[in-house]
Design brief:
CATH architecture of one domain: Alpha Horseshoe
Distance between the termini: 45 Å
Radius of gyration: 41 Å
Helix content: 40-55%
CATH class of one domain: Mainly Alpha
Mean pLDDT: 84
Oligomer: single chain
Order of helices and strands: HEEHHHHHEEHHEEEHEEEHHHHHHHEE
CATH topology of one domain: Serine Threonine Protein Phosphatase 5, Tetratricopeptide repeat
């Protein structure tokens, strides 16, 4: 079994054990460990009562022990709501068993040198650093006062436009293809005939015909849920007013008879309704301002000084040839890759991947763009600049064969340090041009 597998198994076992410890199954009863012992005799005068010696070892694991004091300390360290799980004999037995498991695994790990592993030491140091920072920041930020109601009210009054509710109208319609049909429907509706029945009989709008032509609420911007943007129709609805029927009004969909159920005037959301949202907004902004103010204060107190030249040198350090080659491979279009490979060659003409970049320029021209003249120029530049490269033979093969019907069988060779560089198989001996 690999070390990774062993570590994973140990983590799973320990997590399962701790999970079972903190959240025991509802109604579960642990299996008794042993038969109950006879009741202890009363202690003689001057002697501690039986079971009260907190330093006595209940378990020994090698040279280490688990005492009653250890278990009681663990219970005290648990969250208040969890401690009740260990108020019974069964719960205390379960906790004791889990602590033995922990001690067994901890001592086993110590025996094989896990605590001395550099990676673990690094992770523990990172956790220690983060915990120290979080603890201190929590204490610092606790001094940030919460926004008051008066501040929230001042903000509300200064941003009333943000809390406006636009005027809206609840509208129904009956849509027809011809204006004459719409006029007929309008006349019947004004005579008091049932609107829903008229809608179901005459409307050509299949989406609303069976629900009384309900278009829902609309504001003056004219965005209807069913009809799309119809500002002129919306203005007509507002002009009619609550409880009125009017029309016919034309749109590109046909002719419409409108029935306005209600019109609500523009209003403002009340402060009490928005108070919680405003408090959260102010708290968030105030926390950011308070944090940055305390950070600046701490920087001044500690005398933070910056070396701009060193910083600029670090930030603007040139990418390596391999980084540029990798980025060129990941570009999308052929033109983008060509430009990236040329950038690499300009910055690193003699790097370990320069010959590969030069070859890829010729290869893209030949195999993707079918521009054999440019491909040949690229391959010949490779032959001139990198004659000792293992790709020189491949470049020469491409010059000799890329315009023919013979397609190269590209493979990757271990000697080509950059992955993904195609290379043709060498020609067979005996004068054959086949790859």
């Amino acid at each position: 079994m690999s070390r990774t597998t062993v570590r994973a198994a140990a983590a799973v076992l320990l997590a399962a054990a701790l999970g079972a410890l903190l959240v025991p199954p509802a109604g579960a009863k642990p299996t008794p460990r042993a038969a109950s012992k006879p009741a202890a005799r009363p202690a003689a005068k001057g002697q501690p009562a039986a079971g009260k010696d907190t330093s006595a070892a209940m378990f020994r694991i090698g040279r280490e022990a688990i005492t009653r004091a250890d278990v009681e300390k663990r219970i005290e360290e648990l969250p208040e709501g969890v401690r009740a799980n260990f108020a019974t004999p069964e719960g205390r037995q379960q906790l004791l068993d889990r602590m033995v498991e922990e001690k067994v695994w901890l001592m086993s790990a110590q025996q094989v040198g896990v605590p001395e592993r550099p990676k673990l030491i690094q992770q523990l140091e990172q956790q220690r650093r983060d915990l120290i920072i979080r603890t201190y920041l929590t204490e610092v930020m606790a001094n940030n006062p919460a926004p008051s109601d008066s501040e929230a009210r001042t903000y509300y009054d200064a941003h009333l436009s943000d809390y406006k509710v636009p005027a809206s109208a609840s509208v129904r319609h009956i849509q027809t293809k011809k204006p004459a049909d719409a006029k007929r429907v309008l006349q019947l509706a004004r005579q008091g005939q049932d609107w829903n029945k008229l809608c179901e009989r005459y409307s050509t709008d299949s989406l609303t015909r069976r629900n009384g032509g309900n278009l829902g609420p609309v504001t003056r911007d004219g965005q209807f849920a069913v009809l799309g943007r119809q500002p002129a129709l919306a203005e007509s609805a507002f002009a009619l007013g609550s409880g009125k029927i009017g029309g016919p009004y034309p749109t590109e969909r046909g002719w419409h008879v409108l029935k306005v159920d209600t019109v609500k005037a523009e209003s403002v959301k009340p402060f009490e309704q928005q108070r919680g949202i405003i408090i959260r907004q102010l708290s968030s902004q105030r926390s950011q301002d308070f944090y940055h103010a305390r950070l600046d204060e701490a920087r001044r107190h500690l005398g933070v000084a910056a070396d701009s030249a060193a910083i600029k040198g670090f930030i603007s350090q040139q990418k390596s040839a391999r980084d540029l080659f990798r980025e060129a491979q990941e570009k999308g279009s052929a033109d983008q890759r060509l430009a990236a490979y040329r950038e690499l060659l300009a910055a690193y003409p003699d790097s370990e991947v320069s010959a590969q970049a030069a070859f890829m320029i010729g290869f893209i021209y030949s195999e993707e763009l079918k521009n054999y003249d440019e491909a040949e120029k690229a391959f010949r530049r490779l032959l001139a600049s990198y004659p000792k490269s293992e790709l020189a033979a491949s470049a020469q093969w491409m010059v000799d064969h890329m315009r023919t019907e013979e397609a190269p069988g590209f493979i990757e060779t271990p000697s080509d340090s950059a992955p993904g560089t195609p290379r043709p198989r060498a020609a067979a001996k005996g004068g054959s041009d086949k790859p």
